[in-house]
Amino acid sequence: MKMDEGWMRRAVELARKGGNGARPNPRVGAVVVRNGKVVGEGFHAKAGGPHAEVVALKKAGGKAKGAKLYVTLEPCSTHGRTPPCTDRIIASEIREVIYGAGDVDRRNAGRADRILRRAGIRVTRGVRREECEKLNEDYRHWTIKKEPWVILKLAMTLDGYLSVPGKRWVSGKESRAEVQKLRAGCDAILVGAETVRKDDPRLTVRTGKVGTQPWRVVVTRSGKLPRKAHLFRDRHKERTLVYRGKNWREVLRDLYRRGVCRLLVEGGGRTAESLMAGGRVQEGVIYFAPVTVGEGKKGLARIARWSDWGWREMVIACAGRDLRLHGKLKKAN
Predict the structure, then answer these.
(1) How far from 318 is each of 130, 174, 287, 289, CA to CA, in Å?
(2) Which residues are known catalytic residues?
(3) Which of 39, 78, 139, 195 is 20 to 30 A from 203 in CA distance terms?
(4) Considering only CA atoms, which of 156, 142, 74, 86 is closest in space to residue 116?
């Protein structure tokens, strides 16, 4: 069992290399082991591309015969953008399949075990299960809840303000650079109408390689938005969605139907409070700037009670001059 856990640990490392590139598909890593040596390994890099098992088996070639296959997620057994992985596993004459987490997609859940065992392949499940499940909490949420995994990003002063009079930015340049990477890892970026009126944001990804510009989403009660806002006239204007008078369930369900797996919420205070009050946030990122507004408790936003969010796996680190708090919430999944 210890050896199985060791090889599965390697499969987890490979899965993480895929980052968010495969979304809305899950992150998956695979390792082919024969006589105690790795003969093939791989990860799922892009939706529509080969799955981790296929990549690993292709690298193994004829050495896959009689070998063990370690994979972080139950192999797919239905035909989607690519053929079933179970077919390729059987054709490779693998002796045993060891996987960590079961698939929550009803089309695949539990089917691989039956198919592989009928083909004479031994199946072991649940090795490093919790670790493998954590790889794809967003995918699990998206699949089961049929809503995006919501990440709330805030930048605030030490005394809880979300803006500083006379300044455009609360956070420093290092924090803003990190947010660009955060945007690149999401399928949509959401703000409230007041943020559009006051800040005229672009909500674009301006760093690194981005295949598709994330949707820009605006929620509004009145529908009164400035026509000249960047969101409605730049080269990405067709990637802008406006939801008027919709509740969060309606907004999130429609984004799910559009294939949005990860949703980044960037502002403003009322939007953040509404999402938190409705239990719609799964992950939080807060940048604390080393400044204060100093107008007393009257000006504090209720969302500033970040300590009451119910955190788990919280990580605190520096982002240039700022302090970054990043974690998942206990209510997630």
Answers:
(1) 29, 9, 9, 10
(2) 53
(3) 139
(4) 86
